[in-house]
């Protein structure tokens, strides 16, 4: 029995890890987009869509005008844009439907879970578009893997300041106490000394 328990623990750990790996997909939502360019000259209303390699097209129904920042809450009917597997990237892109030739590409890039610092990720391409994506489930991986040093240092500074303050306070208390004892002893000495002389 004693030998089985650690092994059982190990097995259940591995099992739990793989289960969480299977079920924890990370939803990526589009939080904002601004396009700087459209590629279809004849059609005034472009059909813009997002697509990850091998997955279905997601048409952004509202994005029609250049130089307007479209903001989304993430609950729109076409969201989320994609699901990211654990620690793996997906090749995705932003495209515009073309009625004559093949669809135009705004950009194609790797959408990776570790690029969502604070849960957000900006993808900008010069003269094409600027977009922000959100993946709240992606933060937890980063937070668990490596605590950010930025959040750590102010805490350490605060702790150091607290330690110094406590030290100073302790010294002050000891000094006041010692001084009081000394004064008391002095007065006591003055008080008892004359009474013994006569
Ligand atoms: C892209 O959008 C983000 C979020 O709206 C903004 O902070 C950033 O300045 C923009 N960048 C450019 C080059 O427009």
Automatic annotation (TrEMBL):
InterPro entries per record: DUF7953
Highest taxon above the source species: Eukaryota
Segments forming a coiled coil: none
Keyword Acetylation: no
Leader sequence residues: 1-21
Transmembrane segments: 160-182
Keyword Transmembrane helix on entry: yes
Keywords, in A-Z order: Membrane, Signal, Transmembrane, Transmembrane helix
Domain DUF7953 residue range list: 27-135
Name recorded for this polypeptide: DUF7953 domain-containing protein
Source species: Vanilla planifolia
Native organism taxonomy: Eukaryota, Viridiplantae, Streptophyta, Embryophyta, Tracheophyta
């Amino acid at each position: 029995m004693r030998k089985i328990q650690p092994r059982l623990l190990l097995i259940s750990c591995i099992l739990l890890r793989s289960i969480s790996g299977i079920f924890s997909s990370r939803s990526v939502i589009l939080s904002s987009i601004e396009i700087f360019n459209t590629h279809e000259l004849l059609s005034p209303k472009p059909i813009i869509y997002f697509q990850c390699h091998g997955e279905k097209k997601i048409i952004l129904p509202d994005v029609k005008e250049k130089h307007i920042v479209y903001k989304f809450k993430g609950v729109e009917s076409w969201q989320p844009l994609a699901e990211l597997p654990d620690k793996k990237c997906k090749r995705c892109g932003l495209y515009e439907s073309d009625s004559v030739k093949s669809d135009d590409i705004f950009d194609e890039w790797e959408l990776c879970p570790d690029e969502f610092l604070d849960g957000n990720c900006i993808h900008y391409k010069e003269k094409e578009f600027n977009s922000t994506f959100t993946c709240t489930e992606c933060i937890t991986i980063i937070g668990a893997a490596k605590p950010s040093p930025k959040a750590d240092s102010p805490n350490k500074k605060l702790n150091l300041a607290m330690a110094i303050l406590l030290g100073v306070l302790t010294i002050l208390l000891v000094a006041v106490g010692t001084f009081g004892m000394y004064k008391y002893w002095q007065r006591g000495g003055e008080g008892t000394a004359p009474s013994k002389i006569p």
